[in-house]
Amino acid sequence: MHYVYDLFCILVFPGLIFLSIFGVIAEFIDRKLYARMQNRMGPPWFQPVADFIKLLAKEELIPEEADARMFKVLPVFAVAAVVTAFLYIPLWNTTSLYSFNGDIIVVLYLLTLPTLTFFLAGWYSTSLYATIGAVRTLTQLFAYEVPLFMGILCPAILADSWSLEAIAKFYSEHPWYTLFNLLGFVVSIIAVQGKLERIPFDIPEAETEIVGGTFTEYSGKLLALFRMAIDIELIVCAALLAAVFLPFGLSMAPITIAGLDIEPAVSFLIFLVKILAIIFVMSLIRSIFARLRIDQMIDFCWKYLAPAALVQILISFILKGILIR
Amino acid sequence: MAKVTIPIGPQHPALKEPASFNITLDGEKILDMIVKVGYNHRGIEKACEQRTYIQDMYLIERICGICSHTHSTCFIQAVEEIAGVQMPKRGLYIRTLVAELERIHSHLLWLGVAGHEVGFDTLLMYSWRDREIVMDLLAMLTGNRVNYAINTIGGVRRDITPEQIKTTLAQVDVLEERTKYYIQVATEEITLIERLSKVGTLSHDDAIRLGAVGPTGRASGADIDVRRDDPYAAYADLSFKVCVDNHNDVLGRTIVRVSELMESYKMIRQLLKNIPEGPVVVKVPRKIPAGEALSRYEAPRGEDVHYVKANGTDKPERVRVRAPTLANVQAVAAMLKNGYLADIPIVVAAIDPCFSCTDRMMVSMKDVNASKENVIDWKTLRKYSIDWYRQNRGLDLSKIKISKRW
Amino acid sequence: MSKEETIQQELIKNFAFLEGKIRIARERRIFIDVPADKFMEVFDYAVKKMNFNYLCIISGLDEGENLSFIYHLAQNYSIVLNLKITLPKTNPVVRTVTGYFPSCELYERELEDLLGAKVEGLPKGRRYPLPEDWPAGQHPLLKDWKPENLPESNSGKSN
Amino acid sequence: MASEVLNHVFKKPATVNYPFVKAVKPDKFRGKLLFHADKCIGCMLCMKDCPSNAITIKKVGEKKFECIIDLDKCVYCAQCVDTCPKKAIEATKEFELAQIDRSKLKIVYKNDNAEVKKDTQGQS
User: Number of residue pairs across B and D with CB atoms under 8 Å?
Assistant: First the structure.
């Protein structure tokens, strides 16, 4: 029975199927918010699903010079990596499905994988635009990855653990301590825009410059998979930020209705709301900035974001000395 | 990364019309570029010679969709000069009014396009939404949103009523309020300024040497404006400022355009306040006496020049058109020197290019070149897609009924 | 004396052969017929000494036996001097003015493509505005040119 | 920018939901042309002035004319409306003229009032 439960977790809830559905919903919310911020109507609720189905029905074209096997395998890789990352994030209480000490590092690396697959996808497409997009993806990775890691690891320093579960537990016991990580939260949410390749850091797929960027040559099912990976990545990133920086409400007192303990359900709903709140902030960032140039982006990340993250680490170390002895 | 040459165009998301920029890159830096124009040669100058002046009016209006009033006015001014028409004042005022409204719509459109090119879609959506106001005004005054067809030889085709004047004034107030906001955006939004400032620099000397016109020239400190230097229509009666800026870059071009919007509002108020009573059109015979004239017009994009030669019949002997983009496109290469790949779209967009105006003509020569096989009719297309889905997806879609109208 | 008349006087003073060939059409418009062999002198003088520092366009005309080219020069963006030269169709050769105005390269290429003029000193480059595979000797703006003149093999595909 | 953007989240979108909500056409709108056969005197000026040769006037009897308008050629400048000395051509506000079949864009106005009516209804 144990294996069946595992399989259920990985494939259905909170794994692949749940994530795909939630990803589609998140994409819709993001697009709708973006549209409403721009005073547009935005898409109807089924639009992301319709887009996905349409892509599935489309003809797949693989460039003659591209490495066909790599070309086909990469989207699957991207989806697998992000889905795996989600399994380590605590959702309805402070315990996640699979947890071990150091899983926060694993999640961060799993989140780096899709970026690498984007790079490889562009590189193996052999098209000019895709290659330039690929190089930009990689260049950008070096700029935002360090501030992102530092920003997300700061709460871990204060909590004195490398396990997401322990971090969540620590902060739900001391909710006020989250305020000390505010700077790290801001740094991470900006860096995540880079990871998700959203404005102002959508440089690798800047359509007015390099057409479709890394995905220029992708079409049909493969592109649909990549789109799905990006949608899921959006949720996983938002969930990670929510779990690390906004962990309150995770271990409330049991709420019982008609003898049933619905506390996990309530907590889970609160968690979803937190994810949506973070998506709202990300949509806001997307709508108020112009796309930066790659050199400006690197400048910004190393001149402002990385030092800010360092300051946050410093704060965490000092606080740790004072508060937790 | 080794040197690569990438094509921007003839088809590219950043270009709304066909032109081609072959760019040699070293990483992200531009080493060299070759500009190719001429994809849209439509044969308009030749076609003009075979049509009457009245037909030419509408043909020339369609040189460009955005500055249609520009071209038609410029052409008609030349014809009127040859014919020696004494123009009715009210007609000239209405012509100028439409011209300024067109400038507003063109500049707002440009602002949105510029926003889009640097990935600032919110600006695009806002400025295009506000552009609807001026589009509605144009529709109200002339009948249609584009290709206004308000001009005719000897005046304008449609008069304006006092109610329309009132509506226009009210809407101009709204637009002015919005434009103030855009000035604030253009001068205060950090990421936008990062992307526009010090990009696509064209020094004052280069601008003069390469003959840059319109906002492109004015943003490089060239104090030129046909409306003031060679006044036409009702511009001699108006008082306005020529907006010159010394940034020499894309930011300067943005500032010039948004400040010109403010000047246009001022001009529209003056026009509507002082519009004289009287007829809007005088009758001009179909046959225009022999003669020649050169007409200049300050289009939203710069100086538009038409040369018309008449030979005494109802058809012109020669019509020569030079759209502002042709004067500006040569400056693009100078602007992009040592630039970045990422700056190409915005620098190209900053001259507000209109390649269809520039090229004017392609020989749709008796449809000789479009052989029959190139045209797929609806039934064939439908059959093709049904076959494709049957073969590749195993779906039989032939049973699906389509709307009766089809 | 108006500005236009001053310009007329100055030109006649320096180039006696222009006497009677200068026509002031209206305010700010001066039309001059210049003998083809003296054209560069007048052009040079107008640009360098009289500050006609902006070239609006070059128009080409087909006048039956002859081809005419009109150089529309503007002084301070305001007064336009239209210098017209006439050349026989058999040998329509003009000197390039790219030395004065680098931007007029495209206008001169247009003269070459559409009217079949020969512009001396124009650097080699891409055709404008006709496509690269346009058949030689076909100049659409000539009065006797008709679309039927095109050889059927021309697919009209530009590069 | 941020405050402007946040304000818009709660505002009504500016979009006009086109096929369901139709924008009001201005009075001077130049749409599909309507021919009044009873007024036509057969001067053919409209044919001469039409920039795209979209109008053909045919003589079908003594002082009787019928008109063929090619809507796919028409550029909707309404010069013919201005030219016509008897106001036999009128510009309507109809603009949704797209058709899949090209032949449907050719409109024949017969010189018979009853048929004129039927014809225009069939096309719209």
Answer: 59
CA dist C16 and C18 (Å) reads: 5
Tell whether B371 is covered by a domain: no
The pLDDT tens digits for D49-83 are: 888 888 888 888 877 888 888 888 888 888 888 88
Q: Which of B122, B140, B143 sits opposite D30 (nearest CB)?
A: B143
Domain covering D26-123, topology: Alpha-Beta Plaits (3.30.70)
Say if residues C149 and B358 touch (Cβ distance below 8 Å).
Answer: no
Residues B52, B173: one domain? yes
Cβ–Cβ < 8 Å for B96, B233: yes
Burial state string for A36-47 with b = 16 or more CB within 10 A and e = fewer than 16: bbbbbebbeeee
Q: Is the peptide bond before B13 cis (omega within 30 degrees of 0)?
A: no
Query: Which two tokens mark C87?
Result: 């050349």
C–D touching, 3+ CB–CB pairs within 8 Å = no
Q: Which residues in chain B have their CB less than 8 angstroms from residue C62's CB? A: 318
**Pair B307, B387 in one domain:** no
Q: Examine the domain organization and report whether B31 and B167 are in the same domain.
A: no
For the segment A191-221, what is each residue's pLDDT rounded down to a tens digit? 998 888 887 888 888 777 777 788 888 888 8
Chain D residues lying within 8 Å of B54, measured CB to CB: 49, 51, 79, 83
Tens-place pLDDT, residues B306-318: 899 888 888 888 8
Percent of chain C with pLDDT over 70: 94
Residues B174 and B111 in one domain: yes
Q: What is the ipTM of this complex?
A: 0.84
Task: Judge if B118 and B260 occupy the same domain.
Answer: yes
Partners of C30 in the beta sheet?
C24, C81
**B9 is a domain residue:** yes
Give me the residue from A41, A42, A287 closest to D5, CB to CB: A287
Q: What is the average pLDDT across B277-304?
A: 88
Do B402 and B305 have their domain in common? no
Task: Quote the CA–CA distance of B134 and B137 in Å, as a whole number.
Answer: 5
Q: Where do the domains of chain D lie?
A: 26-123
B225/B327 same-domain check: yes
Whether residues B221 and B257 fall in one domain: yes
d(CA A235, CA B274): 61
Q: What is the pLDDT of residues C75-127, one digit of tens each?
A: 888 888 888 898 888 888 888 888 888 888 888 888 888 888 888 888 877 77
Cα torsion B209, B213, B217, B222 to 10°: value is 70
- What proportion of chain A, given as a percentage, has pLDDT over 90? 2
- Sketch the domain layout of chain A as residue ranges: 2-323
B32–chain D Cβ distance below 8 A for any pair: no
Euclidean distance between CA atoms B40 and B161, whole angstroms = 40
Q: What is the pTM of this model?
A: 0.86
Map tokens 């402007």 to a residue: D4
A155-159, B329-333, B378-382 — which is least confidently predicted?
B378-382
CATH 3.30.460.80 given to domain C3-146: yes
Domain hosting B307: range is: 44-359
Evaluate whether B250 touches B199 at the Cβ level (below 8 Å).
Answer: yes
Here the CATH number for the domain that contains residue B90 is 1.10.645.10
Average pLDDT, chain B: 83
Helix (H, G, I), strand (E, B) or coil at B6: strand
Task: Return the number of other C-beta atoms located less than 10 Å from residue C143's C-beta.
Answer: 13
Q: For A12-71, how does the pLDDT look when each residue is reduced to its tens digit (9 = 90+)? A: 777 788 888 888 998 999 999 888 888 888 898 899 999 999 988 888 888 888 788 888
